[in-house]
Amino acid sequence: MALFTFQSSINLKLHSRLAVTNSQKPERHFSPPNQSVAAVVFGDAAQQSRLYPLTKRRSEGAVPVAGSYRLIDAVISNCINSNITKVYALTQFNSTSLNSHLSRAYSAGLLANQEFLEVIAAYQSPEDANWFQGTADAMRRCLWVLEQHPAFDFLVLPGHHLYKMDYQKLLQVHRSNRADVTVSVLGSARDYNTGFGSFNVGSGNIVIGFEKEPDLIPVFQVQGSKFSEKFSSMGIYVINRQVMIKLLKESFPKANDLKNEVIPGAISLGLKVHAYQFDGYWEDMRSIEAYYNANMESTKKTNMKYNFHDRDFPLYTLPRHLPPSLVTDAAITDSTIGDGCILNRCSIRSSVIGPRTRVGDGAVIEDSVIMGSDIYQSVHEQSIGVGEGSFIKKAIIDKNVRIGKNVKIINRDNVLEGNNETNGYIIKSGIVVVLRGAVFPDESIL
Predict the structure, then answer these.
(1) Which of 1, 262, 366, 446 is deepest in the core (most CB within 10 A)?
(2) CB 107 within 8 A of CB 116
(3) What 3-state DSSP class applies to 388?
(4) What would the pLDDT profile of 100-122 be if each residue is shown by its tens digit?
(5) What is the tens place of the pLDDT at every residue in 45-94?
(6) Cα end-to-end span (Å), the chain
(7) pTM
(8) What single-letter DSSP state applies at residue 325?
(9) How large is the C-alpha radius of gyration of the chain?
(10) Which residues lie closer than 8 Å to 35 by C-beta, 6 or more apart?
(11) Strand locations in 97-250, DSSP E?
């Protein structure tokens, strides 16, 4: 798999200028997105992650995907491919791995080009001794940093979703409508619980109401407006700079959450809130099963919902500088193999194999995600990797797991849901999920 890095994109910039014309008001001209827009990416979703136990020691944005990437790479790559190269990443829960990845992958040597990704970790201050209380609180607490950048609009993005979107199209719609806020919604009125609520959208794509999930409780509806269609929110917002500052500081100074408080509040105040419909593939990683299926997309040759190999809209990540994978008489079909793997006389089918994975002779891996290892180890009785003669089927193996010889990870009892965390694994939707650093002695059967 060819990997793209942020540094390799510097010469691939677009220089289009967005011009917005309105017959009622004077014409306004906007600088290109890399000068007039700053993205604010939230690296973690919540304390109660739907991807647990993969998020036991990392935030959702830092969860590996497709062998060589992290989930947040998809969102940052969308920014780069949309010519938005000023990005602030706000992080808090289990953020060590995410902060390290972002800083190493996207920040080095870019300040001279006025391009940057700045990580802002949750902090305490003399004015506020609390940590971030939510997305709105985080942005309010970081306004002193955000206001330093002369952005006309701020693009707010969750950092753990998998999709491809040209944000320039979203910005163009936002500006042509002269909107105060534009929300991105799933197109075709798809009835889908995204966790971000649903918007009632009237004629002209004007948002007239909001319903909070999971019970879809109406939070606000414009009086006298006629209901048109309900669209699921993607949690993506474009907010005018001055509007954002006023909403956070003056209108809702105590609000903690953007999706349930500030955005519905903007509708209630009569601000011009528009909806932008997105009809492409979008996966919010709402469950272990959704995460598993997203990884399986990287093993397909055709009919891919998400193309990890798209050279026109590439996916960037951290260059690891690992040696090529060493394959010795192994049978590998329909699989994705990361860098630095050592694969002996094994069989791998329809699986994702992460960096530095070691697989012993006679091992069989089918329909599984092996995240790999952070380090190389000398071979001994119980080294990191998959031991000789072991069989793994429909499983997710987190990093640095030691699997002995002739181990079977096959969900022997066909359990749909099971919690055996004390022994190093759980089962979700029939998928065995092995915890990071777990150890399974020879002849173990799961």
Answers:
(1) 262
(2) yes
(3) coil
(4) 999 888 875 444 455 778 888 87
(5) 555 688 999 999 999 999 999 999 999 999 999 999 999 988 999 988 88
(6) 32
(7) 0.87
(8) P
(9) 23
(10) none
(11) 116-121, 153-158, 162-163, 181-186, 198-201, 207-212, 217-221, 229-240
